[in-house]
Amino acid sequence: MSDTPQLGPVPRRIAVDPEQVRRLVADQFPRWADLPVRPVADGGWDNWTFHLGDRMLARLPSAAEYAEAVGKEHRWLPALAPRLPLPIPVPLAKGEPGAGYPYPWSIYRWLDGEPASADRIADPRRFALDLAGFLAALWSVDTTDGPRPGQHNWYRGGTLRTYDGQARRALSALDGHVDTRLARKIWSSALAAPWDGVESWFHGDVAPGNLLLDDGRLAAVIDFGTCGVGDPACDLAVAWTLLTTDGRQAFRERLSVDDATWARGRGWALWKTLVTCASALGDADDVAVRARRVLDGIFSEYAASAVTPPVP
Question: What is the pLDDT of residues 7-18, one digit of tens each?
């Protein structure tokens, strides 16, 4: 359920209703035709998500751009799942266009849990270490034939320069509202941070809505629509968008992240937060408040890193 800004125009989404999903299931998977269909609360933006009975879900891309990830997920999630220490979605069936719906779609097993948030995490340091352990396992999976950055994942795993224009437009909009001089300095340092070119698998959108908790502990990681093979620094943005100060330090130590990779990860977090702040300028809702809090945290962490010896 991606909450990450995307490159270029917002895709033209289509609506999907439960009756349409019932027809798709009945036509293509008659063994499940009698199961009730109901929308998932807060089911995300990239896909329309519906409960299919009690233990499955139907996931239908909301636009043509998001449908590009369906084949990738069916090809790669079954291969990734056995190599990871936490449950991830594994497709049970792949649907085809029909019943007035134009894209491929999927049926998955339902994974229990509630979306992560700072107030729901029982032990922030333990959570950070568990998440780092999951990412370490993902990053270590063999990358042979894996999907490189492209339109299918909005160029996650590629260079931050892809998003330079978007970041600078947000900075211009925020002049006079935040410390854009410091933000530009952090952004420039992220763009300048070199990558050694060693590719890894990455998730691409390690955001609160894609991290499920059970009794306050990390229980599953979902929504691999932006996954791929490339620079894994994009997965580090969560260190600023969700983790506590102590959790962020434990997270970095567990992953043994060097200074350049950490700077690129900070850049991913900054880009996401600047765009959110600019789009919410003048608002006082929860999204705007959270974004400003994250931006302040990025500024503070960057300032502290300038006077603190780097992690070996």
Answer: 656 799 999 999
CA distances from 185 to 194, 270, 303 (A): 16, 11, 11
Report the predicted TM-score, pTM, of the whole model to 2 decimal places: 0.95
Give me Rg for the CA atoms of the chain: 20
Residues 208 and 281 both lie in one domain: yes
Residue 6: inside a domain = no
The two beta strands, 228-230 and 217-221, are unpaired
Cα–Cα distance for residue pair 272/6, rounded to 1 Å: 9
Enter the DSSP assignment of 276: H
Q: Each residue of 231-243: pLDDT tens digit?
A: 999 999 999 999 9
Hey, how many other C-beta atoms are within 10 angstroms of the C-beta on 220? Answer: 18
> For residue 139, what are the domain limits?
115-305
Given a contact cutoff of 8 angstroms between Cβ atoms, the answer to whether 89 and 109 are in contact is yes
